[in-house]
Amino acid sequence: MSGARVLVVEDDPAIRRLLQAALTRAGHVASTAATAREALGLVDIERPEAVLLDLGLPDRDGLELIQLVRARGAVVLVVSARTDTSEKVAALDLGADDYLVKPFDTEELLARIRTALRHRRSGMGAVQVTIGIVTIDLEHRRVTRDGTAVHLTPKEYDLLAELAQHPGKVLSHAQLLRTVWGPAHERSVEYLRITVRALRQKLEPEPARPRLIVNEPGVGYRLVID
Ligand code: CA
Fold first, then answer.
1. pLDDT tens, 128-154?
2. Are both 185 and 74 inside the same structural domain?
3. 61 alpha carbon to ligand 1 midpoint, in Å?
4. Which of 70, 2, 21, 111 lies closest to 10 in space, CA to CA?
5. Which domain holds residue 188?
6. 0.90 exceeded by the pTM?
7. 135 and 118 in one domain?
8. Does residue 206 share a domain with residue 133?
9. Cα 4 to ligand 1 centre (Å)
């Protein structure tokens, strides 16, 4: 994949430099902002494809920036020292594409950027998603494993399809419950657990050690595509 325009929003100068250097080495064009105000200005001028967003900014809470940045077409990866899972959930529900906790591994960060950009560039309209031996045909609502049709219940299929439409992205429990079961069941996390378990039994080579549908503890689930 060719390099992308990436904006780093971070008030800590050491982390800002580290991120800029890592992004440049990976072939991206990185610019930086130290405040929310500066970030919003640069988003309009430079039109970055991805924004790495610190939540603890001096002038504004980073959470408030997520929707503003998303509305301008960039993917948002939150890079925060806040380990509280409710912060992660809030960031994802506001539209962040991913969330990394400091201190983070630079390679992991670069991989997450690639995933978010690939998804954005390929668009939401993919009709078929293949992960290893599993293929999800979103147009015909058909799932195969090693070429053999897998029978899924409607909820199992809807959940898998929702994850498949956002490959590599963490979707929060509430997001998944709202989409698959409806807004009234936003807190019925048990429904989700049962359905994920059933999907793993049907799709994972080793259901007890899931590699396809992975758990982000306290936050949600992610369909792993790499
Ligand atoms: Ca900060």
1. 888 888 999 988 889 999 989 999 998
2. no
3. 10
4. 21
5. 128-223
6. no
7. no
8. yes
9. 24
Count how many domains the chain has. Answer: 2
CATH code for the domain in which residue 16 is found: 3.40.50.2300
**Residue 54 Cα, ligand 1 centroid: separation in angstroms?**
6
Q: What is the mean pLDDT of the chain?
A: 91
CATH for 189: 1.10.10.10
Ligand 1 geometric centre to CA of 53 (Å): 9
The rounded Å distance from CA 63 to ligand 1 centre is: 12
User: 57 CA to middle of ligand 1, Å?
Assistant: 5
Phi and psi torsions of 112, nearest 5°:
-65, -35
Ligand 1 center to residue 60 CA distance, Å? 10
